[in-house]
């Protein structure tokens, strides 16, 4: 893999690790609100992001490239109401989708076909990530100030289980 692709993959590893860190901070935020289902959802999301970083990590190594890990910024500690948290999560996913599309564009410019195939998985995954996060945003908007609907949603999010492949 050439230097440009390698650097771009390393940047994306950092983005995925930072995503994991952000969702872990959101889980900690939900813990303070005693919303166990929301906490569960965010903890699993943090694990998924770590799996995404590892998938890119493995791709670089399998191609004879060199993974170089950069510094991780501290995520915020406060995120607001459950709706505000999920709106921020959705905005974050939209940002990540943009990063993946940019990375794919670089792989096309560099005629790196294995990278393009690997990144197609991420393009699909981002559609799912935005869909899942956007669904919770919509449900929270519907719930409005209704506490019992919020608790019902909390119970639903408690059901989220790790995906078979962890991704
Ligand atoms: Fe890695 O998909 Fe979310 O950020």
Summarize the structure.
The chain is an all-alpha fold and 167 residues long. It has helices spanning 3-32, 36-62, 82-109, 113-143, 147-157.
Description:
The chain is an all-alpha fold and 167 residues long. 76% of the residues lie in helices and 0% in strands. It is built from five helices and no strands. Helix 1 runs antiparallel to helix 3 (82-109). The protein is elongated, with a radius of gyration of 17 Å. The protein starts with a helix and ends in a 10-residue tail after the last helix. The model has no long low-confidence stretch (mean pLDDT 96). Hydroxy diiron-OXO moiety is lined by residues 16, 19, 49, 52, 93, 96, 129.
Contiguous uncertain segments of 5+ residues: none
Whole-number average pLDDT?
A: 96
> Cα-atom Rg, whole angstroms?
17 Å
The portion of residues forming beta strands comes to: under 5%
Question: Which ligands accompany this protein?
Answer: hydroxy diiron-OXO moiety
**Major sheet attributes:** none
DSSP helical segment count: 5
The percent of residues in helical segments reads over 70%
Topology order in helix (H) and strand (E) letters: HHHHH
User: What is the global morphology?
Assistant: elongated
Global structural class:
mainly alpha
**How far apart are the termini?**
24 Å
Number-wise, the strands total 0
């Amino acid at each position: 893999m050439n230097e440009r692709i390698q650097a771009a993959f390393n940047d994306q590893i950092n983005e995925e690790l930072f995503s994991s860190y952000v969702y872990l901070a959101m889980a900690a935020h939900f813990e303070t609100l005693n919303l166990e289902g929301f906490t569960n959802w965010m903890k699993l999301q943090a694990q998924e992001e770590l799996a995404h970083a590892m998938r890119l990590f493995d791709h670089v190594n399998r191609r004879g490239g060199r993974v170089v890990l950069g510094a991780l910024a501290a995520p915020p500690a406060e995120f607001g109401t459950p709706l505000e948290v999920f709106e921020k999560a959705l905005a974050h996913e939209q940002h990540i989708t943009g990063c993946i599309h940019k990375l794919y564009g670089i792989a096309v410019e560099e005629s790196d076909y294995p990278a393009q195939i690997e990144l197609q998985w991420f393009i699909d995954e981002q559609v799912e990530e935005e869909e899942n996060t956007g669904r919770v945003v919509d449900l929270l908007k519907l719930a409005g100030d209704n506490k019992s609907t919020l608790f019902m949603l909390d119970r639903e999010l408690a059901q989220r289980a790790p995906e078979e492949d962890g991704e």
